[in-house]
Amino acid sequence: MTERDTTSLEAIVLAAGASARFGGAKLLARLDGAPLVAGALLTAFLSPVRRVHVAVASDAVRKVVKATAERLAASDRLTIVTVEDAAEGMGASLRAAARALPDDAAGVFVLLGDMPRIDPATVTTLARTLTSPHDIVAPTYLGRRGHPVLFGASWLPALRALSGDEGARALLETAGARLTRVPVEDPGIHLDVDRPEDLARAVEGQA
To answer: Between vectors from CA 184 to CA 182 and to CA 188, what angle results, nearest 5°?
Structure first.
């Protein structure tokens, strides 16, 4: 995409999970002196996107999201999407957030609220790689695909129809040649905090 086109991109941050494997309240756990979810929000707000749509299910996370946006002077770019059926799984959260996107979006990044170490430069690289609304762009590090994933505009109807707990995995598996893998020097694309020991690795700066 051209630099001008990137201004029509949007971002989704999924922050409505139950954190069962962590023992609850994962996104509020402290990392770098701030709630864990703040790392993903920072990446999203530093990305070349118009707005950041954050899917939430709890009042506690909603308050943290608002406070983080205020601290980053980015409240005017924040949309909070309340997920009423979050217990259904990640698909419900992504579906709700995707339905909140404007119809003129050129594409949307999907970021996970529990991935705090993604370099914003990685997101910019993905934005520059998207050349067709029919494409999906994902980063790889050491040959393994990671997050975030950038979906071209043609994929929005599929995102808005998701269900279950697998999120957009099925879309990636069926994309074939429409999925572009972009090698990056960013171990943060693999650092997903699911359990307390994952948080410990993040504190140590390991991916």
So the answer is: 120
Which two three-digit tokens encode residue 185? 């020097």
State how far the Cα of 72 lies from the Cα of 56, in Å rounded to an integer.
19
Contact of 187 with 143, CB cutoff 8 Å: no
Determine which of 5-19, 78-92, 137-151 has the lowest per-residue pLDDT on average.
5-19
CA pair distance 21, 40, nearest whole angstrom? 19
Q: Encoding tokens for residue 56?
A: 């939430």
- Helix, strand, or coil (residue 193): coil
Q: What are phi and psi of 173, to 5 degrees?
A: -70, -25
d(CA 21, CA 42): 24
- Residue 171 to residue 183: CA distance in whole angstroms: 20
pTM exceeds 0.90: yes
Identify whether the C-beta of residue 56 lies closer than 8 Å to the C-beta of residue 16: yes
